[in-house]
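Intended use. Records like the one below are meant for learning the mapping from a protein sequence to its folded structure. Do not use them to infer anything beyond what is encoded.
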Amino acid sequence: MMRNRLLGLLLIGYSVFATIFQEVKGQNLKEFQGLPFITNHEALTYHAGIQNFDIIQDDLGRIFVANNLGLLEFDGKSWARYGLNNTKVRSAFLGSDKKIYVGSQADFGFLSHDGQGNLAYTSLADSLPKGLRDFDETWRVFGMDKFIYFCTFTRIYVYDGKVLRALDPGRRMDISFQVDNQLYTQIPGEGLFQVNSDRFEPIRNGDFFKDKRVSNILSYDRDRWLITTFSHGIFLYDGEVRPFQIESGEWKNEFLINYSTRLRNGSIALATQNAGLFVLDKEGNLLDHLDKDSGLQDLTINFIFEDSQSGLWLAMNNGLARVELSSPFSVIDDRMGLTGAGYAALKLDDVIYLGTNNGLFLWKNGKISFVKGTEGQVYSIQEVRGKVVLNHHNGTFLIENDGAVQISSVQGAWILKQHPKQSDYYIQGTYTGLSLLKWQNGSLSFVKKIKGFGESSRVMEFEDTTLWVAHGYKGVFKLKLSDDLSEVVETKLYNSAQGFPNNDLINVFKVNSRLLFTANGGFYGYASEEDRFSPLSEFNDLFGYGTVVADLEPDELGNIYFIEQSRLGVIKPQQNHQLSLNYSSFNKVKRLWNDDLANVIVLDNQNILIGGKQGFIHYHPSLDLPRADGPKVFFRQIRNQGKESQVIFSGHGLSNQPNATLEETTFSYSQNSFFFEFGSAHFESGEEIHYQYLLENYEEEWSPWTSEIKKEYTNLREGDYVFKVRSKTVFDEVSPPVEFRFTVKPPIYRSVFAYAVYAFSLFAFLFVGFKWLDRRHKKQTLKLEQEKDLELRQKDDVIETITLQSEQEIMRLKNDQLQSQIEFKNQELTSSAMNLIQKNKLLNTIKGSLKNLMEENKSNELNAQLSRLVRSIDKDLEGVEDWSAFAESFDQVHGRFITRLKEKFPELTPQEIKFSAYIRMNLNTKEIANLLGISVRGVEIGRYRVRKKLGLARQDSLSDFLLRF
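Structure written out for the chain above:
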């Protein structure tokens, strides 16, 4: 809701725009206009002669000047000079074929570019026969249809691109002219003539100028010409000749007119010999007069040229100048009588009041004068009921009758604000608080200092009866005054604690009855319900958050002029109830504004003043028109570097069309470094033009904007590249890019042939390598298999050894077990044998006893019984059953000894086998005897028999044999 109300208020002024515009259009704006921006170029700057005669411009915006030491070229940054056979160049013309045709002293010809962009001069006059070579100066060069006309004082030479012919009037001529695609010339003593084919025909009443030397002829309207003469004034011609009057006290008839031209806006510019530049409207009213006091370095102007940006180039007797007459900005400074930095201004009726740090100045009737008694710092100038009030460092003054009357001596008077309820009272902000002034008896007078507040009060605004006072580094104070306005009864300070981003740079402005607060972080509004400040999105979205506004000033049309830290401009309301921010035009002057108490003052809708470091900058909105001629960028030089340094392109011959491209070029790898120099002939931007470049296939993004006009790339790899460059003017206009395409060939070791060799070598290497690897693999595989086999064999051996050892161990364990069993069996056998021996011994004893008893007893019955017992004992001693069991056990223990012995020695008797078995058991003779039931002698005999049957020699041991068997 609040935003819509604001935008509605901003659009109110449009309803009266047409009326206001018509009023402004009817005024002579000269009296409210400062001096145009003038750029002077001295001979020391362009390094040539002081005299200049003609100026042209090519399609890239570069300026060419006919100088008395050659043809000069200026591209906005650098100057170049072409000597042209060391002659004085008087005239120049840019042909449709892009050749620069020049006329000089005793010569004429053209400059054309070669394949590398170098300009080279070709003399056409040198091709003339000797009889036609006798001319002095070529003062004019014109182009019509397909013909070029070189105009000398002797003849006019016509060139069709191939053939050169001469038009000879038979008498001396003066300067020639081109009007509406027709050529005219002046013959001294006869008048003006029209040149038709080979004829020179006098024009009607042309003899009027037989004794008046004509400086130029212009189209004035459809049926009339404007003819200027060097020393006889200006005339209108329509077949009849009438004087043309200049309506200005600054013009004097003794001023000599060297040249005249019609500007694009319809004005007429006059170049004089001794009074500088005059600019007239069609009716002859003086619009501008520039001389040395205005900033020109010379009063003698030979030629005027209006460039594509509507700047006027002046070819002077001593140097060159460019004048920005069509700019919406002009300067009011010490050249007009105003000294100091600009701080305040006021327009009242037909007088403009200007305040600087040096005091107050009046601009009235086109003149600026100082008001005595106002020396020192002026802070503001205000109109109070038709009176002019000056707020000054030394106090407060009324300006009356071009003089100053002090009404308050309170130092540091900043500003006055009328009380909204008590309209006769005014609150004044000062260094030390507030003062009260009152309107009475037709004048303003000081009443008293207001108590209760002592802060500096430079910026303040009323909201109803509440007074808001902004302080530079504390915040903003909300003050409530007593009913009699004698004191401040309530004070509250608002700063970062109440919604501001910090305490610094807080200001308050009233725009269309609404208070806008600005801080070091954007725009803020006061919410009374919450008693806090909050950001205003409609302005912060427009500016971007973080902006710091120093001043806001609305006009009657709803525009709001602003100054912030980095830019100044205007907020414009749009028909869609939106706001637009326009500041690019103001970039032209932002380096000139006064950053101490920066200020913008709306004198009226068409006259805006900006406080400058030197005086004021005047802004005329109706002259701020869209610029039709956009910026163009071009290559000054392209150089290839490496083992050798060579210039590829020298700046001429490239079209000004968007995305213009030089012919693609290929370079060896040893020449892989490049140097680019570029420029843009945008003269309004001066030194503030910036560039951006990109090398495709090397850089991903455009570079940051820079004022550098050179870029170098070294040691580029092979590949296809496109170097692009574009420019940006002081008005943020970006030019279409120009391009240079080039290719860097690879080094020989990275060429296609080299890669083919590499590929073949690689193939051969891989083939041989694969073969070698295959053989090596097979060898390694075989070796690995052998190693595996060996390893397996070793493992098998180990396993076999382990197995054998295991088997041996098992066998040993088994043998040990068998041995134990054998020993056990042997022990059993031995024990059995011993038991048997004991038993047999006992039985033998018993037997012996029984036999003795039988011998002693004669009883047959008893003897029979005893005999049965003896037989039973004998049977038992034979031990056939016992032997069988013993033999079976003995064979188990002694490895089938008895069986093997029987098989090998079958002749052995059972008694001898028993005898052998007992010997193997290591029984002694006595024990054997007991077992066998024989005597010891019988054992010896038995041993003898066994030895014999076994075939033992005497020395052989029977026991050893039987043990080993």
